[in-house]
Amino acid sequence: MKSPINLAVVWLALAVMVTPVCAQQDKSIYELGASQEKYKTGGFKPAPENIETNFGKLEFPGGYPTEETAQKVYDELDLRRATQLYLDMYPALSMRGMMIGTARDYSAKDCSHVSVTANRLDSNALFLTGNTESIYAMVLFDLKADGPTVFEAPAGLMGPVNDANFLFLCDIGPTGMDKGKGGKYLILPPGYKGEVPDGYFVFKSPTYRLFSFVRANAEVVGKGEKAMEFFRKNCRVYPLKGGPKDGTFTNVSGMPIDTLVPENATAFEWMHELINYEPAEAFGKEKLGRLASIGIVKGKPFNPDARMKKILEQAAKEGVAMSRVIALESRQPAAQVYPNRKWESPFIGDSSTFDPDGYFNLEARTTFHFTADGITPSMAAQMPDGLGSRYQTTYKDKDGKYLDGNKVYKLNIPAKVPVALFWSIVVYDSWTRCELQSQPYPSISSQSDPAPTVNKDGSIDLYFSNEKPADVSAANWVKTLPDQGFFVYMRYYGPLKAFNEKTWIPNDVELVK
Predict the structure, then answer these.
(1) Average of pLDDT values for 128-157?
(2) Which helix (H) or strand (E) holds 57?
(3) What distance in Å separates the CA atoms of residue 351 and residue 360, rounded to the nearest whole number?
(4) Strand ranges inside 320-418, DSSP E
(5) Which residues pair with 138 in a beta bridge?
(6) Which pLDDT tens digit goes with each residue over 191-242?
(7) Global pTM exceeds 0.85
(8) pLDDT digits (tens, 9 = 90+) for 414-423
C-alpha cells in the first residue's frame, strides 16, 4: 500500500498536468485564437519534398508527386482502406456467413424452416464459439422475399433476433417482451407503410435479412425426437400475409455447416452482395464511401482488375491477422474480468453495443465478432439475479502462456457455481474459434451425463489434454489436439448474486507439471 503522502503527491502531479489541458478545452474559439501567437509570413512549414515511409520513399519535386510516388500512394491507400473495411464489415460478413450456411448446408428454403440442434450442437458445425449444451432453433428471415414475418415463440425459449449488420433487434424469452411466457413477434421490413395488426410484439428491422438462434434448455424440452416434437407443436414462423402455417423442422445435429467469414478476397465479393441487397441507409454514407473507394458500389458491377485483386487478397490476410491479435492478445484493460485471473469477457466493457464510454470501442467490437455469434444485452450487461447468461473465456494458463494441445492442463471449478440454471465448459479451436474437432462434444457441464466427479470440498477438477491422464474420470476430461492451440469458455446460465458481485471467482487453467 502506498502512503497517504505519496498518493497525495501523485494526485497533485496529475492535477497540475490535467488542469492546463482542461482549461484549453473549455475556451471558446475566440479565446483560443486570442491566446495563440499571431501568424507571421513564412511561418507555415510544409512537409518535406521527400518522405520516407514503410511502403517506400515518396518524392514530391516542386510539390507534385512523381508517377512512381502516385502509384505507391494509391496502392497503399487502397490496401489500408480495404483492410479497415475487412475489420469494419466483419460483423455483417459474419452474419452473412451464418445466413448462407443455414440456407446452403441446412437447406433452409424459407422463413418457416426451423433448424434444430435436437441432439445439441456438435463439432461438425463451424459456428463461432457455439454452445454444446443448449438446444438451438435457427431461423432465417428475408423480409424482401416474405414481407412482415411472424415468429410465434413458446415459453421456454430464449435468444436474440439480429439484423444483417449483426445488430440487436430484439430478445425472445425471459429478457424479451414476452418475459418468458411466449408470444407472437412481428418483424416489419425497412420502410414498411402498411397496417400493423394488434396482438403482436412489433419490431421494425433496418435490414431485410435477419437471423435468430433461440435456445432451449435440454432438461426442459428434452433431446432428440422429444425436442423436435416440442418445436413442431409450439413454434411457428411464417409471413404475415399468408397467415399461420406449419413449418419445416429439421434436426441438424451432426450435419456439417460452415458459417465462417472468408479469409481471402472473397470477403469483398460478400460485401458487394450485402450492400446491393440491403437498404443504403443500413450502412451509412461514410461506409458506402469507403466501399466505393475500392470499387464496391451499390447497383454497379464489382470487377476488380488484377492489381486490385492482389490488394484485396492482401487486405483480407492483414485484416485477419489484426483481428487475431486484437481478439487473442487484447490490450483492453476492461477485457480482464478479475484482477488476478486470466479470464476475459467477450463483451469488453459489458456492452453489447461496444460503446459504454460514449464512442465505439473498435477493438471490443472486433474481439467479439471475430470470436462469437449472437448479440444481445442479456449476455453482456448484468441482469437481475437468475436472468440472462454471462460468458468468460481464457486463452492462457495461470502463467500467461497460450493453451497448447500438446500439454496437460487442469481447471479447478470451486464449489457452488452461482447459477440458477446450469454452467458449462466448452473447448474451442484457436484457428476457427469453433468447437475443437477432437470429439463430437468437447465440453463438460453441470448437465453432463455421466456427471463429472466431484471433489470432497465440492469443487470439480477438469482436465484438457491429448491423452486422458491416469486416474482421471473420462467425464472430467476434454480431449485436445496435438500441435493445435485451443481456448476455453465458461458459461453461466442464470447467474446469481455471488457471480454478479464477484464473491465467487473461477480459478485459472493450470499447466500440470
Answers:
(1) 95
(2) strand 56-59
(3) 10
(4) 389-394, 409-413
(5) 115, 213
(6) 999 999 999 999 999 999 999 999 998 888 999 999 999 999 999 999 999 9
(7) yes
(8) 999 999 999 9
Single-letter residue type at 370: F
Name residue 411's beta-bridge partners: 462, 509
pLDDT at position 2 is: 44
CA dihedral 89→94→97→102, nearest 10 degrees, is -140
Residues 6+ apart with CB under 8 A from 112: 236, 237, 238, 245, 246, 247, 248
Average pLDDT over residues 395-408: 98
40: its cell numbers? 507571421
Distance from C-alpha of 149 to C-alpha of 152, rounded to nearest angstrom? 10
Residues whose CB is less than 8 angstroms from the CB of residue 234 and which lie 6 or more positions away in sequence, other chains included: 154, 156, 182
Measured CA to CA, the distance from residue 194 to residue 180 in angstroms comes to: 29
DSSP 195-238: ---SSSEEEE-SSSEEEEEEEE-HHHH-STHHHHHHHHHH-EEE
In the three-class reduction of DSSP (H, G, I as helix; E, B as strand; rest coil), residue 276 is classed as helix
Q: What's the CA gap between 107 and 67, in Å, rounded?
A: 52
Q: What distance in Å separates the CA atoms of residue 439 and residue 441, rounded to the nearest whole number?
A: 6
**pLDDT band at residue 1, thresholds of 50, 70 and 90?**
very low
Neighbours of 48 (CB within 10 A): 9
| pLDDT tens digit sequence for 421-476 | 999 999 999 999 999 999 999 999 999 999 999 999 999 999 999 999 999 999 99
CA separation, residue 68 to residues 162, 258, 294 (Å): 46, 43, 20
**3-state SS of the chain: helix, strand, coil percent to 5?**
30, 25, 45
Cβ neighbours for 4, distance < 8 A, ≥ 6 positions apart: none
Task: Determine the average pLDDT of the residues in 282-304.
Answer: 97
In angstroms, the CA 160 to CA 53 distance is 46
Strand order in the sheet with 209-216: 168-172, 157-163, 209-216, 135-142, 113-116, 248-251
The Cα–Cα gap between 335 and 338 comes to 9
User: 26 pLDDT band (50/70/90 cuts)?
Assistant: confident
Give the pLDDT confidence score for residue 319 in this predicted structure.
Answer: 98
Burial level of 350, CB count in 10 A (0-12/13-18/19+)?
A: middle
